[in-house]
Amino acid sequence: KSWLGPSLAWCFGVLAMTGIWTTLGIWLDQPCLWMAAVSAIDLGLILRFTGVGAGWPRFSGIVIGTLLISISSQWLIAANAFGLVMGLLPLESIQMVGQVLVWEFTRLRIETHELAYLLAATFIAWFLGLRQQK
Fold first, then answer.
1. Rounded distance, CA 19 to CA 1, Å?
2. DSSP-derived 3-state class of residue 64
3. How far is 61 from 6, CA to CA, in rounded Å?
4. 51 in the Ramachandran plot: left (φ > 0), alpha (ψ -120 to 50) or beta?
5. Which H or E run contains 6?
6. Dihedral of CA 97/9/61/128: which sign?
7. What are residue 52's phi and psi, to 5 degrees?
8. Alpha-carbon distance 127 to 130, whole Å?
9. pTM higher than 0.90, yes or no?
10. pLDDT tens, residue by residue, 82-130
11. How many CA atoms lie within 13 A of 42 on its CB side?
12. What is the DSSP letter of 114?
């Protein structure tokens, strides 16, 4: 089987969910960690419908994709917030903020109970990735 189709679908899924999460985070002015669960479901369905069999490849794709979406979305949300304060365009502020600034900005905005969404995303990745279909 070809790996090109599932890989392209996975890349488009990651980019699309990053855009959706970032847009919601900026619009609601929140980190929106519940989107981690939505991202895991989206990637799981994308990989399943493109023919990736249940097992470690699908599980790894869901976990890595959700992690990439989470980190890049929080980076873009923080960059937008700091760019607004400094009078920069979003593309300029993305290059100026560093990882320490993004981490502190995100850490201060996340409430403790919202970390359960990351645990839910891991469970969803297990359920959609490693569980065999009957």
1. 30
2. helix
3. 10
4. left
5. helix 4-28
6. positive
7. -75, 120
8. 6
9. yes
10. 999 999 988 899 989 999 999 999 999 999 999 999 999 999 999 999 8
11. 22
12. G
